[in-house]
Amino acid sequence: MTSSNKTKQECYVIKKDAVKAFLDSLSDYTLHAPVREDETILFKEIKNTDDIIYDFSNAVKAPKDVVMPQTETMLTITKGGKDSLVVEEPESPDKSVVFGIRPCDAKGIALLDQIFYEDKQDTYYVQRRENTTIIALACNDPHRNCFCTSVGGAPNGKAGCDLLFTDIGDAYFVEVVTSKGKKLITNKKLFKSISEADKKAKNAAHKEATRKLGDALDLKNFPEKLEKMFGEEFWEKYALKCIGCGACAYMCPTCYCFDINDIDYKDVVKRVRTWDSCQFGNYTMHTSGHNPRPNKVNRVRNRVLHKFKYHVDNYNEIKCVGCGRCTTHCPVNMNLKAIIKELAEKEL
Amino acid sequence: MKSNPYMPEIAVIDDIRQETVGPRAIKTFKVSFKDDRLQKGFAYKSGQTAMVSLFGKGESMFCITSSPTKKGYLEFSVMRMGKVTSALHELEEGDAIGVRGPYGNDFPLEQWKGKNLVFVGGGIGQAPLRSVYLNVLDNRDDYGDVSIIYGARTSKDLSYKEELFDFEKRPDVNLSLCLDWKFAKEGMLDEEAEEGWFKIDMKDPEKTKAPKGTTRFTGFVPQIVLVSKPKPKNTIAITCGPPIMIKYVVENLKKLGFSSDQIYTTLEMRMKCGIGKCGRCNIGSTYVCKDGPVFSLTELEKLPNEY
Amino acid sequence: MNEIEAAIQDKVRSLLEAEKIQFFIGYEKGSDPIHSAPCFVKEPKDVERLVWDPFCAHNLVTFIIDEKKRELPRGEEPDSRPIGLLVKGCDSKAMIQLMSENKIAREEVYIIGVCCNGVIDSTKLEKILTEKSIDFEALAESDIQVDKDSVVIKYKKEKVSIAKKRVLLDKCPDCMSPNTLVYDDLLGDSVEPADSRDYTSVEEIEALSLDKRWEFWKKLLTRCIRCSACRNICPICYCKECAVDSAHQVITPKTTYQEKANKGTWIEQTVDLPENLFFHLTRMLHMAGRCINCGECERVCPMNIPLSLLTRKLEKEVKELFGYEPGKDVDAKPLMSTFEEDDPGDFIK
Question: What is the pTM for the complete model shown?
Answer without folding.
Answer: 0.92
